[in-house]
Design goal:
The protein is of the alpha+beta class. It is 31% helix and 28% strand. It folds into three domains: 4-115, Rossmann fold; 145-213, Dna Ligase, domain 1, CATH 3.30.1490; 216-322, ATP-grasp fold, B domain (D-amino Acid Aminotransferase, Chain A, domain 1). The relative contact order is 0.14.
Length: 334
């Protein structure tokens, strides 16, 4: 039986296209499952018999994949199961809830190599920066002092302890779509002062906010980890006022992206951290301070890599394809 690579994603995820093309050129059987098409277009069956589970998924084109044929699973930005239009809101919500539960059962009972298993990448680590930094600090990686609170007095205290100026960040990293407009908007890292907090106490009470000591930057790092391989990229965010506090305010014309080297000690600690997290892939954000210190900010288990690869030539897609084609004998995240 020919083994398959299952890609769990959504129809808008263009990042996977190049990797899938590489896999197919190498003779691999790739089964793409756009999760938002379930249950309308995809079908799944999970059956437990005599203690053994067998899962089967049928694509909208009629292609059939069973548990025994899966050698690796790539969990990207999987969509959310949906329902047919024209139903009542109550029925749509019922279908979505049952479909989400069925999809989760499919993920947690499919035994294969995962990049990354959603038990780790989604349930544990996604939007959980505080936990990530805690574990990083425990193995000796420097992290910024951080507070998460919706108490204005506590945020003021923290700000005063760190010189009256801190970085304010979202916990979830959400993007927003303004009603009536197609453009997607993001909220970036902001530098705020004690006076700003004092004037906006009501805003702090509305929802929890994450504050961090402001770490001075020489440059920033985007370190992509793929199954033990480490691809560091230096981002010269301080060369441009627009990207000074958050390189995601992209300015490719003025902000250099270059392959770089990191210390052997940091490589060992990153490898250890990813093992503790149970991740075979991760996009890690760090700062190099003017004193040459490495400071960990977060790891995104499904972080983008396309623009890094395009600007630097780092062979990240090839490393992903190679890992999925020749997975190690481990069951990630289970």
């Amino acid at each position: 039986m020919k083994e398959a690579i299952l890609v769990l994603t959504n129809k808008e995820d263009k990042s996977v296209d190049g990797v899938i093309e590489m896999l197919k050129e190498g003779g691999e059987w790739v089964f793409r499952f756009n999760v938002e098409s379930f249950p309308r277009l995809h079908q799944t069956t999970m059956e437990l018999s005599a203690g053994t589970i067998q899962n089967i998924v049928v694509s909208e084109s009629g292609e059939v994949l069973s548990t025994q044929a899966i050698k690796s699973c790539w969990y990207r930005h999987a969509g959310t199961p949906g329902s047919d239009d024209g139903l009542t809101t109550q029925n749509q919500e019922f279908i979505k809830a049952e479909s989400r539960a069925a999809f989760w059962s499919f993920c947690t009972t499919t035994k294969a190599f995962w990049m990354n298993h959603p038990l780790r990448g989604v349930k544990l680590l996604e939007n959980n920066k505080l936990y990530q930094m805690m574990i990083a600090a425990e193995i000796g990686i420097k992290v910024p002092d951080t507070i998460v609170t919706n108490n204005p007095s506590q945020l003021l205290r923290f700000c005063e302890q760190h010189g009256g100026t801190i970085a304010a960040k979202l916990l979830s990293g959400r993007v927003f779509q303004v009603e009536g407009k197609k453009d997607i908007q993001a909220i970036y890292t902001q530098v705020i002062t004690r006076d700003f907090i004092a004037k906006n106490k009501k805003g702090v009470r509305v929802a929890p906010i994450m504050g961090q000591e402001y770490v001075q930057k020489e440059l920033e790092l985007r370190i992509t980890f793929v199954n033990g391989q480490i691809f560091p990229c230096a981002i010269y965010s301080q060369d441009c006022e627009r990207t000074k506090h958050d390189w995601r305010r992209y300015d490719f014309k003025n902000v250099r992206h270059e392959p770089c080297k990191i210390t052997g000690d940091l490589k060992k600690k990153i490898t250890e951290l990813m093992a503790l997290f149970g991740l075979s892939y991760g996009a890690i954000d760090m700062i190099i301070t003017p004193k040459g210190e490495y400071v960990f900010l977060e790891v995104n288990p499904s972080g983008q890599w396309g623009w890094i690869e395009y600007l630097t030539g780092l062979p990240i897609s090839q490393a992903i394809a190679s890992t999925l084609s020749h997975p190690p004998d481990t069951l990630q995240g289970l």
